[in-house]
Amino acid sequence: MTHHNRPGRAMRQAILAAGAAFLLMSGGCASVSRETTGSVAPALSRPVSQMSVSELNQTVRVYGAAYQKNPKDKRTGLTYASILQMTGRNDQSLAVMQQVAIAHPKDRDVLSAYGKALAAAGDLNKALETVRRAQTPDSPDWRLFSAEGAILDQLGQSDSARVLYRKALDIAPNEPSVLSNLGMSYLLANDLPNAETYLRQAVRQPGADSRVRQNLALVVGLQGRFEEAEKIASAELSPDEAEANVAYLKQMLAQQNTWSMLKDADKKKG
After folding, report:
1. Contacts of 263 (CB under 8 A, 6+ apart)
2. CATH number at residue 123
3. Rounded to whole angstroms, how far apart are CA atoms 237 and 77?
4. Which of the two residues, 126 and 238, has the higher pLDDT score?
5. TPR repeats at which positions (predicted)?
6. pLDDT per residue over 189-198, tens digit each?
7. Domain for residue 148, yes or no?
8. 46 or 230, greater pLDDT
């Protein structure tokens, strides 16, 4: 039997940050519908996960103004909170979701997003309580199972987390965000082969976004396949986006002091 060493808390948090799909995005607020529902906020030009940094910052300003005009609007609040999380403004995202949750106390989409905002802000126990409260046994929601699993993974309870991911997949087979979460769960346990298996499955699914590809690139890079990781990180992107993804990959690998080692090892193979 192979034993895997779990990464320390700091590295676990870094990995979770790297996998934006991992928690923020188990299929909830990052994929808010583009339809307008009486809100003053305009429809998104494209999914939040595919926006550049400048586009995200501009969208934060637009949705910030819309939220100020109508803080009780569900779709505006969910989208605004999601974009704030994508730009690292987790405390502000949580404050927005608290107001949206007050306005919609029984809405499962809102409670799920509120739980994710709590987790992103570091309040994992309250996040877990919120997500569990939103779930209903007679009509279970795969997004809530996935969100709960991601929180449990952050708490170091990977076995319990994977049970929930598989429950989510029973409801939504081959859902890329859940497969990505499952792969990242194995990464947290330093089981890189299993992590790669599930992330490759995730990347092949319709609807898989660039965050899933970044997770796969990270896992491939951590196994020493530097050039392959770069190709994955930059696939199907504009030159600017590809450069940003590769830079992010280097940053994440550097946090384990592995980037230079992988690069040297790759050169020796050539």
Report:
1. 226
2. 1.25.40.10
3. 29
4. 126
5. 142-175
6. 889 999 999 9
7. yes
8. 230
- Summarize pLDDT for 96-106 with one digit per residue, the tens: 999 999 999 98
CA 116 to each of CA 3, 39, 103: distance values in angstroms, whole numbers, following the listed order: 31, 23, 17
Q: Determine, yes or no, domain membership for 174.
A: yes
C-alpha R_g of the chain = 18
- Residue 255 counted as domain residue: yes
End residue of a domain, out of 79, 100, 133: 133
Note the pTM of the prediction, 2 decimals: 0.76
What's the number of domains the chain is made of? 2
Please check whether residues 200 and 235 belong to one and the same domain.
yes
Q: Which range of residues forms the domain containing residue 99?
A: 50-133
